[in-house]
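step: validate -> pass
step: tokenize input -> pass
step: predict -> running
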Amino acid sequence: MRRIRYVRMDPTGNLTCLVLDRVAPEERAAVTAALLDRCEQVGYLMPSGEMDRDIRLEMMGGEFCGNASMAAATFLCREKGLRPGQEAAVTLEVSGAVKPVHCRIRALAEGAWEGTVEMPSIADLTEETILGERLIAVRMEGMMHLIRRGAVLPQDAAEQLLRRLTEVISAPAMGLLQWVDAEKRMIPLVYVRESNTMVWETACGSGSTAIGAWQALLRGEGWTETEVDQPGGRIRVRAEVRAGRIVSVFITGVVRYRGAGELKGE
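step: predict -> pass
step: emit ->
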């Protein structure tokens, strides 16, 4: 009986299982399903094929995930014994991202780490009417987010809307981000096509990126910092606008280690 080892990392409440052993692509659906009652999302760690990258992270549906990237970089630093007050740079190869993903990890006291991730570029940010809804559409590598303003939808209505949106828009993963402007609060609901999963996330790194980029464009040229509150806590977003375009976005959050476990496989 084969055992599959994993660790649970907690970036701003977005509980993530990182699988440490090799799992064949055709086995991942079953492993992911078994782990999703212990976390919100699953990523698979493996050696990178590139010399300048520390490790490769493949998400459960081939999507990109900023929080999982932060979690993977933190796990590596924890394994290397990064001590409180020390910092380290980690470069990842991540599914859904064309370029290397650069992270900076700083060890805090009491088993916590602060992680900063340079997010992949944003391909497009437009305001569109889709299925009768006026939405801010943010397209990025491996992910698309749709920002909805106004009254918060009931859970069933939000899930139904996102399901309908995935039927008319093709993307590896899609988020419906309900934005409460008066409270600077985001309620993220994310669908991953490959695993056919829909999750009310406690925190969403790429969703925070979408909000931060949109807010930066509203404010104009230069650097803008936006604090995005969500059910799991707060993610800080720094975005730079140059010549009316988003040229770089960084997210920062706190990561905690929540223990290790094993699955028994065939």
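step: describe -> The helical segments are 28-35, 66-79, 155-168, 205-219.
step: cleanup -> pass
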